[in-house]
Amino acid sequence: MRMLVFPYGQDCEPVIRHAGMLEDGYEITALVSPAGWGKAGKEVTVGAGSGMLPVHESFEEVTEEFDSLFIPPFQASGEAVENRLVDKMLLLIPHISHILCTARLTEANRKKLKEACFCSSQPCKFVDFCEDKELEAYGLAEPMEKNPPLKFVDVPVVIVAGVWEKTDKFEISLSLRERFLRDGYRVSQVGSRDGCEMMGFHSFPRFMLQKDLDGTVKIPCFNQWIHQMIKREQPDVVLITIPGALQNFNEQFTRGFGLLPHEVFQSVAPDALVMCNIYMSEEENVLDELSISCKYKFDVSVDAFHISNLIVDVHKSEEYNRIITDSIYRETVSKAVARGSTNNAIPVFNGLDAKECDKMYETIIEKLTSKSAQTVL
Length: 377
Known about the structure:
Blueprint: E1 2-5, H1 13-17, E2 27-32, E3 43-45, E4 52-56, E5 68-71, H2 79-90, E6 98-101, H3 107-119, E7 125-128, E8 157-162, H4 169-182, E9 187-191, E10 202-203, H5 215-233, E11 237-241, H6 259-267, E12 272-277, H7 283-298, E13 304-307, E14 310-312, H8 314-320, E15 325-327, H9 330-343, E16 348-349, H10 354-368
Parallel strand pairs: 1-2, 1-5, 2-4, 5-6, 6-7, 8-11, 8-12, 9-10, 9-11, 12-13, 13-16
Antiparallel strand pairs: 3-4, 14-15
């Protein structure tokens, strides 16, 4: 499928940068970003060595060939904005054969797109990667025995987690996947986003996000799901990215209190853990505290830190009663990484830099091949 990406924005940049990892049959050929998002008019590298694509402001400007629409995750400032974007998508339906949706749209907009595809004069299939599945669809149907024992995972497990959202977890996991595959390892992977199947691995199972499912059920279910995946795929290493935040930011912004990471760590113990953090001043002191917190809260040790360029404006967040974030220059991050590498016992990296990511990967390989690891490569 030759895919037009709309709306192209910051949330889909990891997929664009790693487009070479898309499964056979998927090709990104055009990018359209709404006016005001600051992306239109730029040129973007699509995959390593795959060339550049211009970012258009409207469908009318597109000269590249496409036959499918790829809707990536995006942040809309309100339902009215999402409605306007979906109305623009409707204009494409008579001219395309597929819509591939990884954005969590409102139910009304999902229904609108599905109905428009069904009624189109030219057949158009709507593929919703965000659609909820029943627990049975994961091969974990009830009845389960009461308090089932957890199964031992005898394959090395690498987990990528984030102290906060949007700290590059997904991109770091893609970069690590590339390096494992490059070195000939068979990788079973669970991503933190919907639609990871387009890149050849599994999306994070939605049953882990169900509010009506108790944690005492989720933990053995996830453990059994990972165990079944390993049995099917026979990997050399398992790579898991945990969605969401590791802990609350403060008393006002709790973000789930780290319950989801707790459930994952209870299900599958990592042999290596990469922790992604926001940028903060006095970084090395913060990282020491995070290392201790992970050890005593989750009984896991951090093996490598990645520092993102995300910062949180605490004063504005308290004023507007919602998290207000911004980004800083990567050069500032590099200085923080150099400072952290000197003063912190745990290696600190800027994983978005290829050379730094190579070092992070080597750190993980060294950990997995050491005698202290639960299972070794």
